[in-house]
Amino acid sequence: MSQPDIVVRNGTIVDGTGGATYEADVALTDGRITEIGKITASGKEEINAKGKIVTPGFVDIHTHYDGQAIWDPHTAPSSWHGVTTAVMGNCGVGFAPCKPNDRQKLIELMEGVEDIPGAVMHEGLQWEWESFAQYLDALDRRQRDIDLCALLPHAAVRVFVMGDRAIRLENANQADIAQMREIAADAIRAGAFGFSTSRTTSHKSLKGDYTPTLRAQEEELTGIAMGMKDAGAGFLEMVSEWNQPDTATEFGILRRVIERSGRTAVFTCSQRNNRPHYWKELLVHAEQARQDGLSIRPVCAPRGVGVLLGLEGSQNPFSGTPTYRSIAHLPRSQRIQAMRDPEIRQKILSEDPKTGSTFPLFHRLTYAQMYRFGNPPNYQPQREDNIDAIAAREGRTAPEVAYDILIEDEGQNFIYTPLSNYANYDFSASEAMLDDRNSIMGLGDGGAHVGFILDAGYPTWLLTYWGKTRNRWPLPELIRRLTADPASAAGLSDRGVIAIGKKADVNVIDHDRLGFGRPYVTHDLPAGGKRLLQKADGYEATIVSGAVTYRNGEATGTLPGRLVRGQR
Question: Does the reported pTM lie above 0.85?
Answer without folding.
Answer: yes
